[in-house]
Prior knowledge:
By secondary structure, this protein is α+β, with helices and mostly antiparallel strands. The protein has helices at about 5-10, 25-40, 70-90, 110-120, 130-140, 160-175, 215-220, 250, 305-315, 365-375; strands at about 15-25, 45, 60-65, 95-100, 100-105, 125-130, 150-155, 155-160, 180, 185-190, 195-200, 200-210, 230-240, 255-260, 265-270, 280-285, 285-290, 325-335, 340-345, 350-355. The protein folds into 2 domains: about 5-60 and about 160-230 and about 335-394, FAD/NAD(P)-binding domain, CATH 3.50.50.60; about 100-155 and about 230-330, D-Amino Acid Oxidase, subunit A, domain 2 (D-Amino Acid Oxidase, Chain A, domain 2), CATH 3.30.9. The longest helix is centred in the first third of the chain and has 21 residues, at about 70-90. It is globular. Flavin-adenine dinucleotide binds near residues 185, 212 and 362. Belongs to the MSOX/MTOX family.
Amino acid sequence: xxxxxxxxxxxxxxxxxxxxxxxxxxxxxxxxxxxxxxxxxxxxxxxxxxxxxxxxxxxxxxxxxxxxxxxxxxxxxxxxxxxxxxxxxxxxxxxxxxxxxxxxxxxxxxxxxxxxxxxxxxxxxxxxxxxxxxxxxxxxxxxxxxxxxxxxxxxxxxxxxxxxxxxxxxxxxxxxxxxxxxxxxxxxxxxxxxxxxxxxxxxxxxxxxxxxxxxxxxxxxxxxxxxxxxxxxxxxxxxxxxxxxxxxxxxxxxxxxxxxxxxxxxxxxxxxxxxxxxxxxxxxxxxxxxxxxxxxxxxxxxxxxxxxxxxxxxxxxxxxxxxxxxxxxxxxxxxxxxxxxxxxxxxxxxxxxxxxxxxxxxxxxxxxxxxxxxxxxxxxxxxxxxxxxxxxxx
Length: 394
Ligand SMILES: Cc1cc2nc3c(=O)[nH]c(=O)nc-3n(C[C@H](O)[C@H](O)[C@H](O)COP(=O)(O)OP(=O)(O)OC[C@H]3O[C@@H](n4cnc5c(N)ncnc54)[C@H](O)[C@@H]3O)c2cc1C
Ligand SMILES: O=C(O)[C@@H]1CCCC=N1
């Protein structure tokens, strides 16, 4: 709570005071606000768009959840993240996770694939090695090439993303939190009491958490902080069966990640959900785009994502039409090492930043929210945060 001194010196009429303000009601900001409210903090969650919206990174019906990661710290963090997802399911009374299993495949000896198997083994997470032949038996619709192998993460599955966002925001409100949507933050005045000005009014708080997704750099520049963040426009593609109902690819597909020889980016897929009869398969990458300009057609994209995907579908999922039936857009905010930034502002220690989730942050969000709330309140962090510190960038 506020110290009396802070109240006397910094409150002014018409400026509502909170313990903590969270800027940005995507999945990371919403979970941060939820954890802050859980620790008894009077918390305001601010969002520029009317909720729900589709302009950031957290919209859509589905995201992959998995423990299969080449970095052991993620496999470790995912164990608690699964528990926190289960807690939210219970608190909200909403089913948020469907266990489909996840297959990761690539050329035998692929370094990342080997690290994934090693991590699953070390953390005693049930997994299986699948040969090309075993994959054919289990998933006849997926056609691995000679010399390719797969790893089967039994815990992998689908998160119901839009339901999760709604659930966490509702739980936050139930705990006494406040959400103001359709209210853009236009100015932040740092200090022992931070003043946050929006398109509607001003608020003050001892602590601020910035979780602005692809707008992060725009919010941080006036605060004197330049981070190595890139914003990418992602084409979210859905593919149709050649003979509807004739193959079993839609009915029994697992989630998958594929490292294809000769392609720089991974490709991933999820079972049919959003559009009956269509399956979602995307490139883990895209072309750089300003968040406000993402709807402008880029003439000559550097990453020819749709062509890469069409080639992939022809080679690996021959029961699907090798041209997308539906294409939608979403934004990634990526860092050079694809690890997020979870840290204090270097000059204003009462401002905490969560940014650069690099296209894989949804599954981790219940834990990210917990970590950001720990950073915000000064509680000891539950994890070693070295991979996420700002100082790792020169
Ligand atoms: C196509 C796609 C597929 C993905 N697949 C997976 C997956 O399978 N598994 C997985 O784990 N992750 C996945 N991800 C990544 C995951 O969805 C993101 O890491 C996550 O949604 C990022 O959330 P965020 O809260 O940081 O950003 P956002 O959701 O963009 O939230 C930021 C919010 O801040 C608000 N904001 C910004 N500036 C202001 C301001 N000035 N005032 C007020 N509000 C402001 C924005 O409007 C926005 O609502 C995927 C992402 C995409 C795009
Ligand atoms: O995070 C995930 O699991 C997905 C699939 C791999 C690429 C990005 N998102």
